[in-house]
Structures are given as structure tokens and as C-alpha cells.
Design goal:
This protein has helices at about 5-10, 15-25, 80-100, 125-130, 190-215, 225-235, 280-300, 315-325, 360-375, 385-390, 425; strands at about 35-40, 55-60, 70-75, 105, 145-150, 155-160, 180-185, 220, 240-245, 255-260, 270-275, 340, 380-385, 395-400. By secondary structure, it is α+β, with helices and mostly antiparallel strands. Among the domains are: about 15-100, 2-Layer Sandwich (Double Stranded RNA Binding Domain); about 205-360. It is globular, with a radius of gyration of 21 Å. The relative contact order is 0.16. It comes from Stenotrophomonas maltophilia. This is YcaO domain-containing protein.
């Protein structure tokens, strides 16, 4: 037997961080459920997209006892990294749901101490005035607020409690909580900074997609390698990349859209990422697109009967992820696919090395903070790491920004408030549809 074969036959010893993570995800008495590999279909072969390397998906099952603990998934070029990522995401949500937060009533805080819900890009006044709207958000003295810190100077500001953790710490939820702006990373050198950076980048990514989608903004196309396009076309599919970077955002936002048929049926999905380096953003968006392909086939194969076919019936991100696989005739009509010129982003050659992320985190986060600040965009943060999640070797961070729009899962309640309609502020000169909001649901799972 060759040396390489011997090495392949010997189980690889997990790293300490991986050992700690999976120790918290045991079948009995674990904090979360164990990660399981999600087998790809033969039609999910990646060909030249990742230099011939296989993409691995893993997920931790939903916990029916906790509505905030849906399926947690991750994608990576190594099976162990995908499993680690799935468990880390589940622990991130656990911490966000259970972290202890001091809460104070609205009337116990002065206007200078707090940011009211009206300061955030949530729902418009006309939405909240609708008789059957799920989140009318009347302001009362007894409404509860939790503390966050300004990333600029660490001063304490109080915001509605639902925006900090997942769900309220006391009383009933007055507005929806979201996992956008939550991130976790290993508790190593610069790990907390990288979690903060990834949480902030996720906010920017979701703002870009929400505003692009709701306003029907046409996509600025990014030229992809010819062999990638040929690979998709040979399989009856399509592959597009779009530059969704906001005018004031120094970190590129890239969306990858398209599909590869499975079982002879169309399958249309989208992946998106925000990173400081455009090559890294494209790589991550492509991974997310590949994950979405596998997930759409998995959902539509096993849960097809329960998934809605009408846009107005969508209530979860899972349903959004599967929608255009169930309604492929709507995909060509999407405003994103209209021609809006080419992006000026300069991409590195395919296969270019991506340097380790953690050592760059502090510099990239500071650059982001300064550039966004010049555009009037403030960032706030709160660490949500609980003792048991810390024992698993993770740091969990929440980042929020009043100026940025969020991405909705419930089609009854898209986030139309704040500057959601201000396309020119984000994308000066880029054409967009006059209809608002765009009637087509977004495809992000």
C-alpha cells in the first residue's frame, strides 16, 4: 500500500477546536444535535468551479422544541470544515437565544440613551397601519430595551431587545428577531474580531440583496471564466455573477445566480457573500450557490408537498430557497437578470490563494467602520457568548446598524422602512424597476 493510501486509511485526528465543537453536539445531553453530511447528487459535481475539488455540505437538524433552532448548515471544501461550520451555526443561534441580557423599560431611558425602533430600517408606517400586519409595533413606556456598544467608541446605547438576541428576554416579541448580523468564530487569536467582521459583512450582504431585490435593481454582471460557463451550459444550466456592492461599501458584495437541473427538472438558486477581497467574495458566493443547489434538491425531493408555490405564502428562508425550483417559469422574469452593464471589480485568477482570515480581521473591520462612518452608517455590537458555548471554543457576536435594510423570510412583512427605497444612495446610475416592492420573492435560503 502506498504512503498516500496509508494516510488516507488512517482517521485524521481532529483539531482541538473541532473536538470541543462536536463535544457540544452529542446525541445524548448535547447542547445541539450532531451535524450530518448532506449527500450531493451526481448532478452537483463541481467540475472546474473549485479546481476539481468536491464541495461538502453538512447540517444539524432543526429542534422542534425551539422555534429559533432551525436547520443549521455549512458548506466547505473539506468535510470536517463543513461539519464544524454546521455545529458552530447551531451553537451561535443557541447562544443568541439564551444569552442573559439586562433589559430596561423605555421610560427608564432618556432619548439620548436609546435608539427607538423608528431609528431602524424595519417596517414603514403604512405597513404597520395595515389591519392584519403581524408587527404593528405601537410604542409603549413598558417596551424593553437591551444594551449594545457603538463600534466607533464603545459607548453604550440601548435598542429594542428583539434586535440583540433571538427572541425577547422578557414579555412578548414586538418585532421580529433575525439571525442576520450574527456570527461565531473560534476563540483563538483574533477570533472575536473575525466574528465581528463576518457579522458586519453579513449585514451589508443582506442590505445589498434586500434593496436590489425589493426595488428590482438590474444586476451589474461579473465576467466568469469561460470554462465555468461551458460546464454549466453542458449540463443544461446557467451561471451568472453580479456585483451588488453598495457605493459606500469598501468590501465587495457578489451574488452568484443560476442553476443546474436535477432529475430532469430545472433548479434555480442564489448564493451571496461580502468579503474585503473580491476573489474571496466570489469564492464564498460560489460555495453558497453550490450549497443552495444541494439544499433545493434535498428540500424539493423530501418536502415538496408542504412547500408553497405562491409568493404570498412564503414564511421561511427554506421556502424561499426552494421557490424557484418549484416555480422555474418565473426565474427568467427576475429584474436582477436584466442587463445593467458590466462590473468594474477586478478579480484574481481562478484558484488564487486566499490568505488566512483571522490575522486580517482587525484591519479589515477598522477599514469598514471608517468608510461606513463617512457615509453616516453606524455599527453597534454585543457579545452573546454563553458559558456553555464558550466551553465549546466559540465566541458569538451580534452586529446591527440602524441604516441598513434587513432581508425578510415572511412575505407578509418585508422590511420596507428606513432607506430601503433609496437606490441612488447605494447604486447611483444603476437602472431599476419602478414597482416597489418587487412582487417576486428573493431566492436566498
Amino acid at each position: 500500500m502506498s504512503h498516500a493510501a496509508v494516510q488516507a486509511a488512517v482517521p485524521e485526528t481532529p483539531t482541538l477546536s473541532s473536538h470541543l465543537l462536536h463535544g457540544a453536539a452529542r446525541p445524548r445531553c448535547g447542547l445541539v444535535r450532531p451535524a450530518r453530511p448532506i449527500e450531493a447528487n451526481p448532478c452537483d459535481a463541481t467540475g472546474p468551479l473549485f479546481e476539481g475539488r468536491r464541495v461538502h455540505n453538512a447540517a444539524t437538524p432543526a429542534d422542534p422544541a425551539n422555534p429559533w433552532q432551525g436547520v443549521s448548515g455549512a458548506v466547505a471544501l473539506e468535510a470536517a470544515a463543513a461539519a464544524d461550520g454546521a455545529v458552530a451555526e447551531a451553537l451561535e443561534r443557541l447562544a443568541a437565544a439564551q444569552a442573559g441580557l439586562e433589559v430596561r423599560r423605555r421610560d427608564a431611558l432618556t432619548p439620548t440613551q436609546r435608539l427607538d425602533e423608528s431609528a431602524f430600517a424595519l417596517f414603514s408606517a403604512s405597513q404597520r397601519a395595515m389591519p392584519d400586519f403581524p408587527w404593528p409595533m405601537p410604542e409603549r413606556d413598558e417596551d424593553l430595551f437591551a444594551a449594545v456598544h457603538a463600534l466607533d467608541d464603545n459607548r453604550v446605547v440601548w435598542v429594542p431587545q428583539e434586535l440583540v438576541g433571538l427572541g425577547p428576554r422578557s414579555g412578548q416579541a414586538r418585532l421580529p428577531s433575525t439571525s442576520s448580523g450574527l456570527a461565531a468564530w473560534r476563540d483563538g487569536r483574533d477570533g472575536a474580531w473575525l466574528a465581528l467582521l463576518r457579522a458586519a459583512q453579513e449585514l451589508l450582504e443582506r442590505d445589498a440583496l434586500a434593496v436590489t431585490w425589493l426595488n428590482g435593481v438590474a444586476g451589474r454582471r461579473i465576467a466568469l471564466p469561460a470554462q465555468w460557463q461551458a460546464f454549466a451550459h453542458e449540463r443544461g444550466g446557467e451561471l451568472h455573477a453580479f456585483d451588488l456592492t453598495q457605493h459606500w461599501n469598501p468590501h465587495p458584495v457578489i451574488a452568484v445566480a443560476g442553476g443546474i437541473p436535477f432529475e430532469g427538472r430545472p433548479r434555480h438558486v442564489l448564493g451571496i457573500a461580502c468579503r474585503a477581497d473580491p476573489g474571496e467574495a466570489l469564492h464564498k458566493a460560489l460555495l453558497e450557490w453550490q450549497q443552495a443547489l444541494t439544499f433545493a434538491a434535498h428540500l424539493c425531493g423530501r418536502e415538496r408537498a408542504r412547500l408553497p408555490r405562491e409568493p404570498s405564502a412564503l414564511r421561511s428562508f427554506d421556502e424561499h430557497a426552494a421557490f424557484y425550483t418549484l416555480r422555474p417559469e418565473l426565474w427568467p422574469q427576475l429584474p436582477l437578470l436584466r442587463v445593467a452593464g458590466d462590473s468594474t471589480l477586478q478579480l484574481p485568477p481562478p484558484g488564487a490563494a486566499i490568505p488566512p482570515a483571522a490575522p486580517r480581521a482587525v484591519i479589515e473591520l477598522d477599514q469598514l467602520r471608517r468608510r461606513l462612518g463617512r457615509a453616516g452608517i453606524a455599527l453597534y455590537y454585543r457579545e452573546l457568548t454563553t458559558a456553555d458555548v464558550a466551553a465549546a471554543g466559540l465566541r458569538v457576536m451580534r452586529v446591527l446598524s440602524p441604516a441598513l435594510s434587513g432581508l425578510h423570510a415572511d412575505e407578509r412583512a418585508p422590511f420596507l422602512g428606513g432607506r430601503c427605497r433609496d437606490v441612488a444612495w447605494r447604486y447611483p446610475g444603476v437602472p431599476y424597476d419602478g414597482a416597489f416592492p418587487n412582487p417576486f420573492p428573493h431566492p436566498l435560503g
